[in-house]
Amino acid sequence: MGRLFRYRMCASRELKLKRLPSCHLVKGIEYGSEDIDILPNGLAFISSGLKYPGLKSFAPDKRGEILLMDLNEKNSQPTELRISRGFDLAAFNPHGISTFIGDDDAVYLFVVNHPHSKTTVELFKFVEEENYLVHLKTIRHELLASVNDIVALSPDSFYATNDHYFTELILMLLEMFLGLTWTNVVYYSPKEVKEVAKGFYSANGINMSPDGKYVYVVDLLDHNIHVFENHANFTLTPLKVLQLDTLVDNISIDPYTGDLWLGCHIDGFKLFMYDPENLPGSEVLRIQDILSEKPTVTQVHVDDGSIIQGSSVAALYGKKLLIGTVFHRALYCDL
Questions:
Q1: For residue 41, what is the enclosing H or E element?
Q2: How far is the C-alpha of 227 from the C-alpha of 239, rounded, in Å?
Q3: Contact of 122 with 138, CB cutoff 8 Å
Q4: Residues 321, 284: contact at Cβ < 8 Å?
Q5: Burial of 256 (C-beta count, 10 Å sphere; 0-12/13-18/19+)
Q6: What pLDDT score was predicted for residue 1?
Q7: If you average pLDDT over residues 59-82, what whole number do you get?
Q8: Residues in CB range of 277: below 8 A, 6 or more apart
Q9: Handedness of CA 101, 102, 105, 106 (dihedral sign)
Q10: Which residues are within 8 A (CB) of 158 and not within 5 positions of it... i.e. 6 or more apart?
Q11: CB-hemisphere CA count at 13 Å for 15?
């Protein structure tokens, strides 16, 4: 049992350094950049300040925030987006995020939130002229109990992953140790909420192909990506599983090629049992032709934690790559 758990956590896994040559740390991000979603115009939304059970936080008393960074600017610095009054900012604890552009070019931002250790999904409308988020509604549902990530389907519907079955820390740890496969993917709309995929050790990142035909779901502890066919009635049919040998976190999609860019953790024990003398590293993978018989998996970036710790996302804009982390800094690289 212990050996299997160590395998699931990629314990003691070490990689050779492989750093992109032209990178710099993003000024103003110190406490995480767990998820990143970039609009076609180069505006990047960044979820920062996550407090997650069992994981390190360098600012446990600081509330979370959504940052905005314009990737068209040469020395762009992120700014915090203001949020409309009436929203409980003090308990804001953002996790996975997803944007949706409506018919009228309105930008909607979905944010997984963990206020007071619970789970909600917050829906915002982005007002670009004023760097402002208007809070439209808070979504709570018994099927959305431990949401990790989300992919928007319309201005009020989405697929979401639950990364644990239990919500109490001790039971969450037990669930991981026993290797229970009780986590799932849920479809949510105001009219219908349903489970659409199940049987994951820990369903984590989720995203969709540019044409909307395929949905990709990460199983963090099974080191793989599940590819589903997405149907018009919002059901998912399993198509294939791509096995990797790393702890994949979030998936970003290149809107032009459909390539998957993955933020990964090298060793789960270093992430969960934080030791400043033995830092959690970062790994970025790119996957081309995932639907083919032999997808191409390229290791793009590896760091031992001395520059960035615990990479969770790698989002592409043109020839730029923005690498985010669960609780540390963010790295901006030229490809």
A1: none
A2: 5
A3: yes
A4: yes
A5: exposed
A6: 65
A7: 96
A8: none
A9: negative
A10: 98, 110, 121, 150, 151, 152, 187, 188
A11: 23
CB 252 within 8 A of CB 316: yes
Quote the pTM value: 0.97
Pick from 191, 57, 39: nearest CA to 107: 39
DSSP state at residue 48: E
Q: Which residue among the candidates 24, 95, 141, 226 is catalytic per the annotation?
A: 95
Mean pLDDT (the chain) is: 96
pLDDT, tens digit (0-9, with 9 covering 90-100), for 1-44: 688 999 999 999 999 999 999 999 999 999 999 999 999 999 99
Report residue 117 CA to chain centroid gap: 18
Residue 266 CA to residue 323 CA, distance in Å, equals 15
- Does 24 qualify as catalytic in the annotation? no
**Total length of the chain:** 335
Which residue pairs from 254-258 have beta carbons closer than 8 angstroms and sit at least 24 positions apart in sequence? 254/316, 255/40, 255/210, 256/210, 257/288, 258/209, 258/210, 258/211, 258/290
Structure tokens at 12: 């003691």
Q: Which residues does residue 225 pair with via DSSP β-bridges, in sequence order?
A: 218, 242
Q: What is the pLDDT of residue 169?
A: 83
Pair of tokens at residue 205? 């990142």
pLDDT at 229 over 70: yes
Q: What is the C-alpha separation between 315 and 321, in angstroms, rounded? A: 6
Exposed/middle/buried for residue 12 (C-beta within 10 Å: 0-12, 13-18, 19+)? exposed
8-state DSSP, 302: E
Per DSSP, the residues of 166-215 read --SHHHHHHHHHHT---EEEEEE-SS-EEEEEEEESSEEEEEE-TTSSEE
In this structure, how many other beta carbons lie within 10 angstroms of the beta carbon of residue 294?
Answer: 6
Transcribe 57-100 into DSSP letters: -S-TTSPPEEEEEETTSTT---EEPEE-TTS--TT--EEEEEEE
Give the H/E segment covering residue 6. Answer: helix 2-8
Residue 280: C-alpha distances to residues 8, 20, 188, 244, 247 (Å): 16, 18, 34, 19, 12
The residue type of 37 is D
